[in-house]
Design brief:
single chain, mainly alpha
Amino acid sequence: MQADLSPVIAATARWLTCSFPAPGGALAVALCEAQARQAVTVAARLRYPTEMDAALVGLAGPGGSGRLDWVTGADAEGSGEAWRTWVDEVVASWAVCLLADPGLAGLAVSALTGGAVPAEFRRLVAPDEADRRAAALLRHPDLVAPVAGLHQSALLSRLDPDTTLVV
């Protein structure tokens, strides 16, 4: 993972877990955060596959959470928080697509790794029952549909076998 993407990954994963919180206690919160971070990491690496891409998003910024907040009906009370400026709308959309469909997540991870699924993405690709319960809101296709629908076609296009990924 490019170190330049870490602010985008951290902010986007935080936005996801704030918008679709884990039901339950501290363990559920930790499991939900792990899954969100894995999905956002894969989505960010797909969106910004080269070091130049990562450097450019670091210079220009990813755009912020404004439209995502509007689409989800989030309360604008926290909109002035600085971390929200590092949220990437496309990465968030792609991440919820991956979380809602483990098969698509497997395809995305395989596209990045050349076919193998590393253990670091296990919770994303093969969630167990505890993972599914912890991220019930984040993985629910109907609940994440407004966010997923924003850029789902671009994700599917990126994962098209006829499209070359530069990693």
